[in-house]
Amino acid sequence: MKKIVISFGLGVLIILITVVIASTNEDINDEDKLNSNPISEKSYTLNGTSENWDLQGYELKFDQDTLTAGNGVLKYKLDEEITDYLSFEMIAIVDGEEEYLQGVKFVSSDMNFNSQHTGNGVMPIPLNKDNKEMNVSNIDKMYGVIKWKSAAGDYKEEVISVD
Fold this sequence. Notes:
By secondary structure, the chain is an alpha+beta fold. The protein folds into 2 domains: 1-38; 41-162, Immunoglobulin-like. It is 21% helix and 47% strand. The chain has 1 helix and 10 strands, in the order H-E-E-E-E-E-E-E-E-E-E. The protein has one helix at residues 2-36, and strands at 41-49, 53-63, 66-70, 73-76, 85-94, 97-107, 115-117, 120-124, 139-149, 155-162. Strands 1, 2, 3, 4, 5, 6, 7, 8, 9 and 10 form a 10-stranded antiparallel β-sheet that branches. It is elongated and about 45 Å long.
C-alpha cells in the first residue's frame, strides 16, 4: 500500500511540475509576442479658437497603424442660434502637405448647432511623401475649418487655430 501511495504521490508531483513548466513556457512565449509587436498608443488633446468659435478637447490618438481624430466640442461664442448649416474639417500640414483628418456636416432647421460634437474618424495613419507615417513630430501645423449659416442667412467661414 505504501508503494502505491508513494508512486501515486510521485506521479502527481511529476504532473504538477510539467504543468508549471508548460504554463511558464506559455507566459514567456506570450511576453515575446507582446515585445515583438508592441502596442504604442499616443493621445493628444487639442484646443483652439477663432473669432466666433471655440474648439475644446479635440483628440488625436495614434494606435499601432490607425489614427483616430475627433471627439471635440465646437462652441459658438455669439448669442444667436445657428440652426441651418454647420460644417467642420480638421486639417494637418504634414511635411508641407495638407492632410484631411476628419470632418462633419450638419444640415437642419430644427436643431441648434451652437454647441456641437465634432464626431470622430478612424483611418490608417497617413503617410508623408517619403512613405513615413504621420506623427506629432512631422505635423507642421493643424487647424480646423468651420463654415456655418448665420442667423441673418449669411454663409461664414473661419479657421480655428489649434495648439
